[in-house]
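Following up on my earlier thread - several people asked me to post the actual chain instead of describing it. Fair enough. Here it is, all 385 residues.
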Amino acid sequence: MTIVIVIDLIDNLTNGSVMTARRFADGLAERGHRVRIVAVGAKGPDDVEVGIRYVPILSEVSAKNQIKYGKFDREKVKKAFEGADIVHFIFPFKLEKKCKKLADEMGIPTTAAFHVQPEDISYNAHVRWIPFIDRYIYSNMRRHFYKKFRRIHCPSKFIANELDKHGYKAELYVISNGFDKSFRPPEVHVENEKFEVIMVGRLAPEKKQNILISAVAESKFKDRIHLTLLGNGPKKKKLMKLAAKKQVDCTFDFMPKDKLVKQLQSSDLYVHSSTVEIEAISCIEAIACGLVPVIADSELSATPQFALDERSLFEKDNVAELAKKIDYWLENGEERKKMGGIYAASAKNYLLENSLRLAERMFIDEINDCKAEKLKDSAPLKAHN
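Reply from S.P.:
Thanks for posting it. Predicted structure:
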């Protein structure tokens, strides 16, 4: 198949949705498909790079999360779409809306993914105080974008249920964003001088790294814990100040994949304190490396699905309970090692190769439906007696 992926930007290595799009593009290409990307920062030989669209106020806010919006260029995009079997959309913004209209004009089948959780928007725009704001965002995205598709990729059962609850009528394909096989347990786990606790994710309000820092400060092992927070975002300076104030030994960093794998393999415990997640691929990658997770049990997050028992869950925003769960796992080293192996085995359900097969099935279903429609439309009318 010739598959075109449309996403506002593809050059932000700290954004989970961008990384997912890149993984899918590379994985589909490895499986023999011709893949083109339409995005800001698209540099591949078959890709089409678009310019940056400036949106007053919104662009300034989004820049804090390293987000840029793509500018529609009809001639460039039309060239990218020529000969395509299907166009797949990652975000629901203006670039995607105009590209969807063009794909329909050209008669090309289309599918969409749901990667932008409304609660992420309301947290980062600081408008959660507005009643029903999340419901409004779900409705707005449905009316202006997603209702135009028959098939939507949902990275988790959680978000599929949310879409169903908010009146989305498309067929919902639950397909994990998937992790690649380089994330695996180490052959030998080296004992660390300190307990290595780690979390990966944007340093943003809804990710709640402040809860993790405060929990480490309350831990009975505080002086024996080294905390690593991997990611960038608007809350970095405040989190650094909080760690210094509470005298938590904390490193802030961002790592390419090869170094990230080694960092996870050499850590002792993974914590995911975020209260808003469509899936949290970073948690899957940590589990795949043999780390036991401790996950915020939030009604707005899919990540609790990865917990195998209550020892890996804590009440969202509850610093004291998180501190107790951290202490339990650090006190019980043998149980932690045993469960680490069980967790690593459970992660195999989310391998990227499985996700790619399911995505291919979704694409083929849409292509076949479009072909059937065209045949039906072109069939000669029966003569009336």
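The first strand starts at residue 2 and ends at 9. That should answer part of your original question.
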